[in-house]
Write a structure and sequence with these properties.
13 strands, alpha+beta, nine-stranded mixed beta sheet, 35% strand, globular
Length: 251
């Protein structure tokens, strides 16, 4: 099977997790809904095209490898909104405030987590290869996107080309084994470098030895505009020596 290799790297990355009230945590791996949004943005889909987005999400099959976890930090956001102030919402509408006079005395507070200097490798293929867009269409769109791309939140601009070639392999696990680890010029010295990397694999494939089942809310109802259900993935660690050996076999 043909897989597209994607490199998700940026000075600041946000793999959004389940948000409660004004606190926005992040996950270690990209969710299916985040990848769907990234691909849809490259293809030029619009938010109100719920059926198209839903179909794209249903076709996405992927796994991820965390090449460098980076450093997690929390951004403190605040805004002082007065009675006549209005702003754009993610629903595409202008929205104002309501309430008593005293409600305007205090600012609106939010907390948003991010990962700094994270590097993640994704192996992607599509279910139903006869449908459009094809995996080749997606690769072309990532190289020449309809709109600027971002990794999670709009401030998280990619630091490198996202589409990074093709790998023919029987499984996503094999793709991630055969793909070289993404490193940076300031890579850690050998004595600080971890001996393994973490992976997240789809439940549609065999669970490798040592991996465990992980459950999370990773899919979005693009018509209703909310996240729903539970997604099962397999997560575990793979020694760097095993990846290096697999890469060497390919070379």
């Amino acid at each position: 099977m043909r897989h597209l290799v994607m490199r998700l790297e940026a000075p600041v990355v946000s793999f959004g997790d389940v948000m409660i009230d004004a606190v926005g945590p992040v996950s270690d791996f990209p969710s299916c809904s985040m990848l769907t949004g990234l691909l849809a943005n490259a293809l030029g889909y619009r938010r109100e095209q719920g059926a198209l987005l839903e179909r794209l999400q249903q076709r996405v099959i992927y796994g991820a490898r965390l090449d460098h976890a980076g450093e997690r930090f929390t951004e403190f956001q605040t805004a002082q909104l007065q009675h006549d102030d209005k702003g754009w919402t993610t629903r595409g509408r202008v929205e104002g405030r309501a309430g008593g006079t005293n409600t305007y005395d205090s600012p609106h507070l939010r907390y948003r987590d991010h990962n700094a200097d994270l590097r993640c490798t994704v192996a992607l293929r599509l279910f139903d290869t006869s449908d459009a867009p094809t995996i080749e269409d997606i690769a072309a769109a990532l190289d020449s996107p309809s709109r600027p791309l971002f990794i999670g939140r709009k401030a998280c601009l990619p630091a490198r080309r996202i589409a990074d070639g093709w790998v023919e392999a029987p499984s996503i696990f094999e793709v991630l084994l055969r793909t070289p680890i993404s490193s940076s010029p300031d890579a850690q010295s050998a004595w600080r470098r971890p001996s393994s990397v973490r992976m997240s694999l789809p439940a549609s494939e065999r669970c490798p030895d040592g991996f465990r089942e992980h459950r999370a809310c990773e899919r979005r109802d693009w018509v209703a505009g909310v996240h729903v259900g539970e997604t099962i993935t397999y997560r575990g660690e793979v020694p760097l020596d095993r990846i290096a050996a697999a890469v060497q076999e390919v070379v």
